[in-house]
Design brief:
Strand content: under 5%
Distance between the termini: 40 Å
Radius of gyration: 21 Å
Order of helices and strands: HHHHHHHHH
Largest sheet: none
Low-confidence stretches: 187-193
Shape: elongated
Oligomer: single chain
């Protein structure tokens, strides 16, 4: 959608994104086939189908946010905010909007996935923490000592992206609880006694962190639903109680 608004061609899925979308699409297909074969009086299968379709949409929105942030970043050439023209400030504001939208969506998708995994594998994570996150679900896998191969793969992905995800988490927390994320750099400069023009934050480094966050989400989704599909294909769909 955003590519069309920006006058560019629609996206062609490849790499991690393609793997994630295809694995989730396969899960939805298996659920639809199961619903056709057997009654679903409790609507558990339909609920999962809707949740997973929602994840596909959310992933698309995350990728578009990253892409749009990259697009508008190209128009920001000044090193200082005070040196920007009005037009460049508007482009910078658009970059900031989509960048922040992106890193907030990274953790929103993971938490939605946590809810789906908790439902799929009957982890009862809410008994540990009422409002649990994806990372709480990861700990619950280890605590219950079930689905070890999936747990180990997800832990490996988490470890691989520990540094950029830590950076994104701090900026997300600041944005939600304290101040606009882009103003953190301004505050730091003021605290260092810099009373001159405010230097722009490292936009490329921020976008690289967001891209790695996107990759982490894609790999996590692909691993989760690839594992689910393997079980359902060999054993049939049997939601754990």
């Amino acid at each position: 959608m955003l590519r069309t608004l920006l006058g560019e061609q629609p996206r062609h899925n490849d790499g991690y994104l393609k793997a994630a979308v295809e694995s989730m699409t396969k899960t939805v297909q298996l659920l639809r086939e199961e619903i056709k074969k057997h009654p679903d009086p409790t609507h558990d299968h339909r609920k999962l189908e809707i949740w997973i379709r929602g994840l596909i949409v959310s992933l698309d929105e995350l990728e578009q946010s990253w892409y749009a942030a990259c697009h508008f970043r190209k128009s920001v050439t000044s090193g200082f905010i005070d040196d920007m023209s009005l037009q460049e400030k508007e482009e910078y504001a658009r970059y900031v909007y989509f960048y922040k939208n992106g890193f907030i969506r990274v953790f929103a998708i993971l938490d939605k996935l946590g809810t789906v995994l908790d439902e799929l594998f009957n982890l009862h994570t809410s008994k540990v923490k009422v409002h649990f996150s994806y990372f709480t679900v990861l700990r619950q896998f280890k605590f219950l000592k079930i689905h070890d191969s999936l747990s180990e793969e997800l832990e490996g992905i988490k470890a691989k992206y520990k540094v950029p995800m830590g950076t994104l988490r701090k900026r997300r927390n600041a944005e939600i609880h304290y101040m606009n994320a882009e103003m953190q750099d301004d505050l730091w400069q003021r605290m260092q006694g810099h009373d001159t023009k405010l230097e722009l934050e490292d936009l490329d480094a921020h976008l690289d962190d967001l891209k790695q966050g996107l990759d982490m989400v894609c790999q996590t989704l692909a691993a989760s639903f690839r594992y689910t599909n393997q079980i359902w294909t060999t054993q049939g769909i049997q939601l754990e109680n």
